[in-house]
Structure prediction request, 611 residues.
Amino acid sequence: MLTPVECDPPTLERARATLAEVFGFPGFRAGQEEVVAALLAGRDAFVVWPTGGGKSLCYQLPALVRSGTGVVVSPLIALMQDQVAALAELGVAAAACHSNLPPGELVGVERRLRRGELDLLYVAPERLLTERFLALLDGVPLALIAIDEAHCVSQWGHDFRPEYLGLSVLAERFPGVPRLALTATADPPTRREIVARLGLDGARLFLASFDRPNLRYRVVDKLGDPGRQLLAFLASEHAGHCGIVYRFSRAKVEQTADWLTAHGVPALAYHAGMEPEARRAVLDRFRSDDGVVVVATIAFGMGIDRPDVRFVAHLDLPRSLEAYHQETGRAGRDGEPADAWMVWGLQDVVNLRRLIDAGGAEAERKQIERRKLDAVVGYGETTECRRRVLLRYFGEELPEPCGNCDNCLQPTATWDATVPAQKALSAVYRTGERFGAMHLVDLLRGEATEKIQRHGHDRLPTFGVGGELDAKEWRTVFRQLVARGYLEIETDGFGVLRLAPRAWPVLRGQERLALRVLRRPEGRRRKVATAPPAAELLPDAARYEALRALRKELAAAAGVPPYLVFHDRTLREIALRVPATLAQLAEVPGIGAKKLERYGERVLRLLAEHG
Ligand code: ADP
Ligand code: ZN
Prediction:
């Protein structure tokens, strides 16, 4: 258990007042107060919280309360720019130092820093670590040093950045300044490496649950072209919403974005192969447009902290559950219901296996990556509460099934698949364990393709014995046999299937096997799986829409994204409470002094007109 407050009560009182006054938040979120108190007491801290947990406030607030400038190390320019813009909206003096800044502006920022005018300074690690910049900081009182995305320092993490290694000098160079490392990557080896490399042995560790209760996890079978499935999902549940779609390759990214656009969904492609200019334009639109969908490669993502992303859709399998948790975590940061929706098929597993096997990593690392992939497959295939499976991977045990994943909402039906499983396994055996699922399905279905004839497989006793299932169903049988360890994927990169030792009892008729029925994304189950209607929480949709329009107008006038003016939740609270005075409006969470001053009158006028 955490010991309570470490800093002196008046200072903490000041922090609470600043929280309300500047940020407009009525109170701390779980854990924030303890972190803030530790920093205010001059101690180091290490915060491991999931995305959306409210980490930024942990350094922003103490930086305001303590004297001096808070320095924030961040690997991503987009993220810095977002935060600086958000802070400016709150009336906080913040700036960013990075390579994209015009030289003139850079000089200005450094001047403000020297004069002690900055509450917060965001800086890229490679710039911070120049001797010139360190010397500059020597001459400035520092409130704290925050190291964001701290897992970038770890070679075992999933986003190693060599420039982060140099950050170990900060401990020696600024011994009296409290340091705070923050990350959303939870696995213990990465954590240990962060502590060691950043010299944080004395730091208080703050570990939060990785549960994101407002996310609804769903996994459906990939049925041919996932574009259609995605479109149906968007049409039925997320029309006009902001979301992210992850795809495996650049080509698929382009293809899916085009497909969505052609079908009336405003979609933008984003991948590493694009010009920086074009990427920045996408990020800008993603930050500011209301119902925009970004289609991106799986590697992309850090640096998006838009709070009202309503869905994250994986059209291809992520490489690890860490990546999956992080990617899905970009939905619903505002705490409102959001969807984590994934389609997958056996070919995804084969593709990722090929990538791992053909990659340049050392054997040991490849083994780790294969195990990580196995965990993803296990997650996709599970009939248990998905949240339970996901959290267990991060070392957490959920006491009850969550009630907010597909398996909880609609327990999976299973069928006795012993006979089809025997047919599938014997197809593998009879063809000498040298073929992938596609070919084996052709064999079972009795399709006399050129390849079947070339290998003489139309003369095998298994040829055509599988008429009872269609090709899609056969593919899910193969996938489940892989996921459950009856079949193994050969490490040759071509998806060749081999019998695992576990297959023999089934083949010999000593073991019966129950498999899940094919999970169709739409149709019968749609009703149950749709997010609960927000209707009862929104007494007047017209009023809400009017407020939304006002927000858009205010945002356009201020040149900032709408959510920086008010979050959806703030907007909804206003629509619910219908405040009549500025004092009442100030009570709404998310409305601080600056927002009240800037937008208060306009909001009240609109409410008065609308009744
Ligand atoms: P993280 O960096 O951990 O991913 P953020 O710092 O971006 O999370 O915070 C997520 C969201 O929660 C932001 O929209 C932020 O404004 C909001 N938030 C943070 N702290 C509080 C609080 N005490 N009360 C209400 N909202 C908060
Ligand atoms: Zn569940």
The two ends are 49 Å apart (CA to CA). The pocket of adenosine-5'-diphosphate (ligand 1) is lined by residues 25, 28-29, 32, 49, 51-57, 305, 307, 333-334 (CB under 6 Å). Confidence is low (pLDDT under 50) at residues 521-536. The chain has four domains: 4-207, 215-409, 414-516, 535-609.
